[in-house]
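Hey everyone, long-time lurker, first post.

I ran two proteins through the pipeline my lab uses and got sequence/structure pairs for each. Pasting them in order. The first:
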Amino acid sequence: MPLALLALAIGALGIGTTEFVIMGVLPQVAGEYGVSIPTAGWLVSGYALGVLIGAPILTVLGTKVSRKKMLLFLMGVFIAGNALSAAAPTFSIMLIGRIITSFAHGAFFGIGSVVAASLVTPEKKASAISLMFMGLTVANIIGVPGGTYIGQAFGWRVTFTIVALLGVIGFLGVAMLVPEQGRPEAARIRTEFTAFRNVQVWLAMAMTVLGYGGVFAAITYIAPMMTDVAGFPESGVTWLLVLFGIGMFLGNLLGGKYADKALMPMLFTTLAALAAVLLLFTVTAHSQVLSAITLTAIGALGFATVPPLQKWILDQASAAPTLASAANIGAFNLGNALAAWLGGVVIDAGFGYTSPNWVGAILAGTALLLSFLAAYLDRRSRATATGAAPRHAEPEPAR
């Protein structure tokens, strides 16, 4: 695989760390600012909504420059947002810092997915995308647990300072390894919006919102769930996040591999299993051993959906992939925001820290139903196209 994929993975490592590390230090942040855990959860929801809004805006603006220059600009935004988060004197400013950081997220992965796919042959596109997203999964094995440990030992502000430094490394990696691909065509902006005329693009984004949202319903409140319900010490959250990250890493590899061979069957399997495991987590969260195993499975199943969903978007919007790809990254984070909010609602309603798990199961199950609809529409579309071809090719009868 090209070295440019390594550069994209380095950027993804930094972005993945800042996205997920907040869950590990959420109690510390809430305690310092004097807010409740559900209120602190807005640092997750706000970040996710920032990705949703920032992804299409920055991607459209990015059509004015080369993709490499845009990736460098996005890493600069990422560094600035994390630096503000680290120094924030109030919860509101901390939230603003998170939103600034989030603006880089969606456009980076959206543009990065197009760049990654363009570097390899068509039959390896999903694998290339999964290699870029590998940085996100490595973040959950090393960056997030490490950041959680540092936050608990030395303060969460130190964590976000280190994350900003990761952004500097990501910036240098993109600068040195990603090739220039030229400036996009002048008519690119109008062309990019045509992708949204395809109902399959909207279905894919809906599957993304609900499917990956199911994961975030559980993982957003993992620290209080594991300490208050499973009985882990606060330091145990670090190692639980390592297990979640290992699951993500393995799921990402499998998702990329099998999406190149059987995309829809891969989605059917992972979404069905994800819904079942999330529902099971409501019970297994009361056992330390079983909760650790379940958390690993959630990471694997949740992230196994990422390469196939991102490739499905690129396939359905092949004539104008950049904005659709970025919008789908926004959809991942809309799911994150929706799930984090719903998780906070059921906790505030008095259903306990395990209640977000069954919320996640409902979201993932709904995504499964949408995947059946998308497959049906795709088969019908192909059958219609195949049936139309012979009729158009038939000669007119003799007169």
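...and the second, right after it:
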Amino acid sequence: MTYSIQGLSPDGFAPLFALDDAELAAINARRVTATANSGFPCRISLQDARAGEELILLHHTSHDVETPYRSAYAIYVRPSVDAASYRDTVPPVFEGRPIALRAFAADGMLQTARLAGPGEADGAIRDLFADAGIAYIDAHNAAHGCFAARIERDGV
């Protein structure tokens, strides 16, 4: 059993970095500067921004389905980074954080969920995918609730 985790495509976010602060505020986004080497997880690179790096904080619909489980929340993105790609391993932004894993059927309905402590995400992902009815998993930071990444069966 293999799985893959992809960072969000940078294409839709790149134009945000050309907007001024008033234009960002008009779309409920903010320009921020990371004040530490952790705590500012980029959803494109799936790595924490380093202190001093610029990011955009914006509202993002991560689970865009026609079910009661449609979900949106704030995320950070950095400019000029490539979308991360991981296979059978978890990205750096999962390390050292408790992660909430929400497992969905192909129709977007929640089937089950699990909390994974630091270092437990890989095993929890594999356990969830042992159920053939699980089509994909959305990972969220357990404490803040923000979307971390979509996890799919490899090849899906």
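Reply from user beta_strand_b:
Welcome! Quick read of the second one: Helices lie at 21-26, 121-129. The longest strand covers residues 54-63.
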